[in-house]
Design brief:
Layout (H helix, E strand, L loop, with lengths): L17 E7 L2 E8 L6 E5 L13 H4 L4 E5 L17 H15 L4 E6 L3 H10 L4 E7 L25 H8 L11 H9 L2 H17 L2 H5 L6 E6 L20 E5 L6 H4 L1 H15 L8
């Protein structure tokens, strides 16, 4: 596969970053907004055991043409743990929907990395009026594609973990030899073990209930799938499972692991921008 001939660069005229805590009934949700407020909205949803900080390298490459919104999922980053203890992707999607309504967002292209693709899909299931297209980055399509890595588990009796324990736990989330950024190590340590384990179990339950391509097929939304061909958590060849979704674009990133948004931000942004250029609503995404 060939990469599109787009070379995104940071742009000095984009709007300043703006962050806030939205006070929702189930707990505070952290949101960060970057880029021109009148531009089409691009919503970025992180995966388990991380936060909106995982998008830091990618955001400056996307704000040339988009109003980029990042959300910390409940119990992650700066968002509170949910008062009802519900970490299921449908409930996460509902909270994201509430947050976007509070921000005045009417339409958005939604991008999910890893397990962030599950609340992204749930949001599209619940709010087809809001989600105009979906992009999934290294999101496992079904549990049969998971590559077991039990040796990296963290003992709950040793929580909070050391830097070394976290780096070992997170190692399969990146290509071999990649150094996990210290800020992500620190953010994972600030999570509770309950939030970490419960969110992961909820993602597994969502996939076991119904594989992601089966969920996406009836939605009729444009879909892009990006997968690092060196992913050590999900079998890279499983990206082809998404071809069952009519019109899906599936791209493999040579040399990238499970987290190309940090490992290969320029190449990842190029693929996203080529997709959004075709599918974004030309009207502003916020009212």
């Amino acid at each position: 596969m060939t990469l599109p001939d787009i070379h995104p660069q940071p742009h000095g005229d984009t709007a300043a970053s703006e962050d806030a805590l939205l006070h929702l009934d189930e707990g505070d949700i952290y949101v960060c907004q970057d880029g021109p407020r009148g531009a089409p909205v691009l919503l970025l949803i992180h995966g388990s055991a991380t936060s909106s900080r995982s998008w830091d390298a990618l955001v400056p490459l996307l704000t040339t043409s988009h109003h980029v919104i990042r959300i910390d999922l409940p119990g992650h980053g700066r968002s509170a743990e949910p008062a009802d203890g519900d970490y299921s992707p449908p409930e996460q999607g509902r909270r994201i929907s509430t947050a976007l309504d509070r921000l005045g967002v009417e339409r958005a292209i939604v991008v999910g990395h890893s397990s962030g693709g599950y609340p992204a899909t749930a949001l599209a299931e619940q709010r087809p009026d809001l989600v105009t297209a979906l992009a999934l980055i290294n999101t496992g399509p079904g549990m049969d594609a998971f590559i077991a890595s039990g040796s990296t588990a963290i003992d709950p009796t040793q929580w909070p973990p050391t830097d070394e324990q976290i780096r070992q736990f997170a190692s399969t989330g990146f290509r071999t030899g990649y150094h996990v950024p210290q800020e992500l190590v620190d953010e994972l340590r600030r999570m509770t073990y309950h939030a970490l384990s419960t969110a992961m179990q909820a993602s597994i339950a969502y996939l076991n209930q119904r594989a992601l391509p089966d969920r996406l097929m009836p939605l009729g939304k444009p879909l892009q799938v990006i997968f690092g061909d060196q992913d050590r958590r999900w079998r890279p060849s499983s990206a082809a499972d998404y071809r069952a979704v009519p019109g899906a674009r599936v791209e493999l990133l040579p040399g990238a692991g499970h987290t190309p948004i940090l490992e290969e931000p320029t190449r990842t942004a190029a693929l996203l921008l080529a997709f959004t250029e075709i599918h974004q609503d030309q009207a502003p995404g916020t009212r």
